[in-house]
């Protein structure tokens, strides 16, 4: 643009960049944490689902009719 900027403008831009990067890092960490929590919940849910499926096949009264 050909417009000279002073020291204060440069410092302000550098500070804004630092703030933007810090905010992005915090958001990234939060997203990673939420992803880990969701992954653990899916894993626990699938493990509990397998156990529940086995239990339902062997419950009393499933096939009492013996011919």
UniProtKB/TrEMBL annotation:
Identification of the protein by name: Uncharacterized protein
Domain of life, source organism: Eukaryota
Region (Disordered): 19-67
Gene: Dana\GF27252
Organism: Drosophila ananassae (Fruit fly)
Biased amino acid composition, Polar residues: 21-30
Organism lineage string: Eukaryota, Metazoa, Ecdysozoa, Arthropoda, Hexapoda
